[in-house]
């Protein structure tokens, strides 16, 4: 394979990867990811762009101290953020699978 063919192949691979990455980002942005704290007493829903869409607080918590409620909300948000990050890593990994990149290779180039 000559240099021009290699460059063309690299260009095609880059275009394919870009399309897959754009699709993965769009899918992730539209996804709803759920986290919780206090055994489900506080639930948070985010999209893949870390926008909080909903927070659900069980009525039984309304009689608790403000500090407890604040801690549970923070824990639920943190749980959801971790799940969004995991979903993002998974989506980007799926988008680059099959490209023959070495393990640990970071994108973009």
TrEMBL record:
<keyword id="KW-0238">DNA-binding</keyword>
<dbReference type="GO" id="GO:0003677">
    <property type="term" value="F:DNA binding"/>
</dbReference>
<comment type="function">
    <text>Binds to DNA and alters its conformation. May be involved in regulation of gene expression, nucleoid organization and DNA protection.</text>
</comment>
<keyword id="KW-0963">Cytoplasm</keyword>
<comment type="similarity">
    <text>Belongs to the YbaB/EbfC family.</text>
</comment>
<dbReference type="InterPro" id="IPR004401">
    <property type="entry name" value="YbaB/EbfC"/>
</dbReference>
<feature type="compositionally biased region" description="Low complexity">
    <location>
        <begin position="1"/>
        <end position="16"/>
    </location>
</feature>
<protein>
    <recommendedName>
        <fullName>Nucleoid-associated protein DFR26_1827</fullName>
    </recommendedName>
</protein>
<dbReference type="GO" id="GO:0043590">
    <property type="term" value="C:bacterial nucleoid"/>
</dbReference>
<dbReference type="Pfam" id="PF02575">
    <property type="entry name" value="YbaB_DNA_bd"/>
</dbReference>
<comment type="subunit">
    <text>Homodimer.</text>
</comment>
<dbReference type="InterPro" id="IPR036894">
    <property type="entry name" value="YbaB-like_sf"/>
</dbReference>
<dbReference type="GO" id="GO:0005829">
    <property type="term" value="C:cytosol"/>
</dbReference>
<feature type="region of interest" description="Disordered">
    <location>
        <begin position="1"/>
        <end position="23"/>
    </location>
</feature>
């Amino acid at each position: 394979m000559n240099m021009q063919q290699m460059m063309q192949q690299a260009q095609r691979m880059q275009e394919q990867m870009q399309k897959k990455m754009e699709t993965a980002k769009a899918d992730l942005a539209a996804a709803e990811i759920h986290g919780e704290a206090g055994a489900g007493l506080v639930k948070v829903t985010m999209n893949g762009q870390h926008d909080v869409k909903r927070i659900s607080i069980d009525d039984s918590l309304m009689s608790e101290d403000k500090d407890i409620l604040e801690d549970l909300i923070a824990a639920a948000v943190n749980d959801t953020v971790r799940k969004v990050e995991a979903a993002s890593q998974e989506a980007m990994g799926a988008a680059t699978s099959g490209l023959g990149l070495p393990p640990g290779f970071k994108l973009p180039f």
